[in-house]
Write a structure and sequence with these properties.
The structure is a homodimer of 232-residue chains.
Chain A (H helix, E strand, L loop, with lengths): L2 H14 L12 H8 L3 H13 L3 E4 L7 E4 L3 H14 L5 H18 L5 H14 L4 H17 L4 H13 L1 H8 L5 H20 L3 H19 L9
Antiparallel strand pairs in A: 1-2
The structure holds a DNA duplex (30 and 30 nucleotides).
DNA sequence: TTACCACTGTGGTCTAACCACACTGTAATC
DNA sequence: GATTACAGTGTGGTTAGACCACAGTGGTAA
């Protein structure tokens, strides 16, 4: 077993045993190296991996943002991983879109009416109506979809859904510039969002799921990204 | 931007541009360091991250297994990431199980009859009938489920499904020892597998999906792991 | 022909140093 | 006394250079 894997194992055990919790701070790199009888290099390689996994965040200096602290951001980490695999041509974009449709329509169907995430989603829609530019709009759009997914109460599904979107963010982002009429598209998307949210709040999960599926497939299809029809 | 991120960016560009393909070999660490005008340490940190993502595999010595080669193993990489997040208590095991049920029943419903993966799945079932011990059985079981998921033709879904299982492998593995009667459980699981495969081959996707959901939930419930009923 | 062995290039590991950063406490100043 | 300036401390970030184990390669001696 390689040295940095030993360090990883040690840290994972600290987490499993509860000796190290979310928001907690890892010992300094030099301290860990001494304790585990390894070089600082190996410790750093382990920390890098954890950072790539979205398990820790490293900060220089001193104070609240300093040191290596335990976080929980699986979404961005999974997104980076998927993006790299898309780059290797191993994961087709169409499969990503199809999976996103699957997860997100599932979440829409099970969204719990009354949870704070839905209120947040509604607020985001208001902000999108006055978004000054496309990038702002897309950022708010991303947050809306995440909020909707979170309303279903399954952290794994919402994390994966966010990562799928993130993995092909650049793809879709580049293509929005090629749309024939952004204002028209934006208006349509916003109307669809409100319809989805209304269906959810009306306890019509089935309809919400259908609307979400059509919404996502429609967007990617218009943007020219392969979107499987995913026949029922 | 930190130095190793620069290296990562460079490698990702090589992949996106097609200058580096699956099965291809990265330049040596010393060579890359010199080309990019960075230290070998930074190059190594980038390679470590890619390795953790399942994008490359590093091998010492010389010959076919030597050097850093581009691979495509998103499943194990995502699995490790999820496992760590389970350790931080951020991802509940119940959510993992629920998501697995979602993905796997979706795949079962859409499995294409006649694809080689189904034939492989059938073979695996025969081997499971004569598995000498629990560990062998579980390994074959894992491969069966992956083959079934692959039969749906969505690489993202099958990779995620495999990673979900991997993330809680230890959990479930430890608990099998506590089962009251392994032989009875094994017999039941095997019968369920055959029923699932029969439904798929009979073009009855709906039934296959139901059977898969019940199969997975039943296993984790018996093993004592939180399994949400996921009501329709 | 065979067996041996030095050579080469790969990743794996370590040491020791220096840097930028951000806070902390002290000392000089007003 | 309050304010300012600054050295001190501990954090991660980066580098250079060395040595190791490993696995093929190719020459050389038996």
């Amino acid at each position: 077993m390689r040295t940095h894997e030993l360090v990883l194992q040690w840290i994972e055990k600290q987490l499993s045993d509860g000796d190290l919790a979310l928001g907690g701070r890892l010992p300094g790199e030099r301290t860990m190296a001494e304790q585990l009888k390894v070089s600082r290099t190996s410790v750093r390689e382990a920390v890098r991996i954890l950072e790539a996994m979205g398990v820790v965040r490293a900060g220089v200096g001193s104070g609240k943002d300093a040191g290596t602290v335990v976080i929980a951001e699986p979404g961005s980490a999974l997104g980076s991983t998927l993006r790299l695999h898309v780059a290797t041509r191993h994961l087709p974009v169409a499969d990503i879109v199809e999976t996103r449709v699957l997860l997100e329509s599932w979440a829409a169907e099970r969204a719990q009416v009354g949870v704070p995430e839905l209120a947040e989603a509604a607020e985001l829609l208001d902000h999108m109506d006055v978004a000054p530019d496309i990038d702002t709009f897309l950022a708010l759009d991303a947050r809306f979809h995440v909020a909707l997914a979170q309303a279903a109460g399954n952290t794994v599904v919402s994390a994966m859904m966010a990562s799928l979107r993130g993995a092909i963010e650049n793809y879709a982002g580049e293509l929005t510039g090629n749309l024939p009429d952004w204002n028209a598209t934006s208006a349509r998307l916003r109307a669809e969002h409100r319809a989805i949210l209304a269906a959810v709040n009306n306890n019509d999960g089935g309809k919400a799921a259908e609307l979400v599926a059509a919404h996502i497939q429609g967007f990617y299809k218009e943007a020219g990204v392969g979107a499987n029809p995913s026949p029922k």
